[in-house]
Amino acid sequence: MLEHDVIIVGGGLAGSRAAVEIARTNPSLSIAVIAKTHPIRSHSVAAQGGIAASLKNVDSADSWQAHAFDTVKGSDYLADQDAVEILTKEAPDVVIDLEHMGVLFSRLDDGRIAQRAFGGHSHNRTCYAADKTGHAILHELVNNLRRYGVHIYDEWYVMRLILEENQAKGVLMFRILDGQMEVMRAKAVMFATGGYGRAFNTTSNDYASTGDGLAITALAGLPLEDMEFVQFHPTGLYPVGVLISEAVRGEGAYLINCEGDRFMANYAPSRMELAPRDITSRAITREVRAGRGAHRDGSPGGPFVYLDLRHMGKEKIMSRVPFCWEEAHRLIGVDAVKEPMPIRPTIHYSMGGIPVNTDGQVRSSGDGLVEGFFAAGESACVSVHGANRLGSNSLLECVVFGRRTGASIARYVENRKLPSIDEQRYIKEAKQQIQSLLEQPGEYRINQVRQEFQDAMTDYCGVFRNEELMKQGLEKVQQIQHKYSQIYLDDKGSCWNTELIEALELRSLMVVGQMIMTSALNRQESRGAHCREDYTERDDEKYLQHTMAYYSAAGIDIQYRPVTITMFEPKERKY
Ligand SMILES: Cc1cc2nc3c(=O)[nH]c(=O)nc-3n(C[C@H](O)[C@H](O)[C@H](O)COP(=O)(O)OP(=O)(O)OC[C@H]3O[C@@H](n4cnc5c(N)ncnc54)[C@H](O)[C@@H]3O)c2cc1C
After folding, report:
1. Which of 310, 465, 548, 559 has a CA between 20 and 30 Å from the CA of residue 247?
2. What mean pLDDT is reported for the chain?
3. FAD-dependent oxidoreductase 2 FAD-binding domain: from which residue to which, for each copy (predicted)?
4. What is the pTM of this model?
5. Is the C-beta atom of 35 inside 6 A of ligand 1?
6. Does ligand 1 come within 6 angstroms of the Cβ of 526?
């Protein structure tokens, strides 16, 4: 059996930042980072626009309090305010720390870190490295993993959390290269496994964002929090869904409909294109529904609106958002200097996740904690984003709560022993599970079942939701789940069996999908990204609460947990 003091599953920003903190706090600890991709291929590398912190380099009137207020208002008052206080207070410090590690941020003329405008933020506080911020930060963090002697298990797939009597003891995983199966035990296990964008058919997320960590947690009998809050990013490039960063609007681009109108004037007159994402995504969907979207030939009534950069000029476009220009040019042949880009909302971010306290320790219920189990980053819900995340607050969450969770793990393992595990039992069960997937005499192909599932999630639980639609959706997902038990895999081998990985990932997506839809069906109000056509108002009396969803084969049990309010009383949210 493999063993380390600490196991971190996930080599993105949250997992890498936690590993660095553990090594800095106690260099004698043995740390393993496990990732199904190479760590620098984690989705964090694709982050474009930036990371928020009230450094006041551009806007001296900014403060952590202003950042906290914007975050809480953006969350539609569902964020836990103690967590938001930590996020925004520690932000300047973590950004400076990244700079000291060597991250190449874009600069002002006087050499200080540059800061740009972002949706829902009342001050220019987003620090960036052109439009490749995630790339700049992740590369430096992964360099540091090497420097600190962290053991990297790249291209290992974690299948199961070993949880016994409310204590996390290790994980079961296999090496993608040759199928070798191993149990790894540790004094503490941390999940930093990212989001689940692939549960939907149009997403900005990479192919590996399949919600594995969430599904594994739910299958171990632990709750998932606020799963109904799924973020649509307003500007996914049509038709591919690839992200055009909010930085483009931060730098001054317009949203226009097929009539050439800047329609945001009708939805958020004070913030226009820089309204929060939930409001902007709904505005675009409403324009399209009203027939003011465009077709590729420019005629009205089509499925997308435009993001117009033309007035910004070539020089600004090429120096501030060169990657976005290149994406549109390479993927759909649009030269954004001369023509507007076709865009529509695309699934982008998971506000909910594995419930944790502000030290990153996982909650077993509304008031209990799991021993030895921690989580941070997009897979966790601490909850700083509540019902709607502001752009550039996610990289920040990964770094602030990655660091805090790392520090608390280093303290936690001090007086703990390695747990004992019946290794053979877990290996035998996992081998049986894989064997039956490989051998089942099925009739469906994996991509067909996955497509059907992704279409169902998009059609029945999209930007606008209602009871009838979601009930149909749940039935549909159950039918698809039945088909999953009859999938047929061509590849029966153990060397780089990507088809098998896809089958396991689809299982994760289907668990996550059911948690999203059931949580959404139970929340009979509209709040942030969760917009119900049958309950159009926010209902603080009943639903100023976090959803805690418990998965079991028999069905999903929904409970609620109170929101922590310390600074800002809930108000109507207007922009
Ligand atoms: C295109 C795009 C642009 C973005 N731009 C911004 C931005 O400008 N600013 C901002 O604040 N946020 C942005 N975001 C959001 C932000 O990038 C992510 O929320 C954040 O990077 C997530 O980091 P993470 O460490 O939680 O997970 P990830 O970076 O997704 O890493 C997950 C890790 O878990 C591993 N893993 C998962 N499952 C398994 C398994 N079963 N076994 C082993 N390993 C596993 C993966 O291999 C990977 O290493 C953007 C997101 C996207 C998609």
Report:
1. 465
2. 96
3. 5-395
4. 0.97
5. yes
6. no
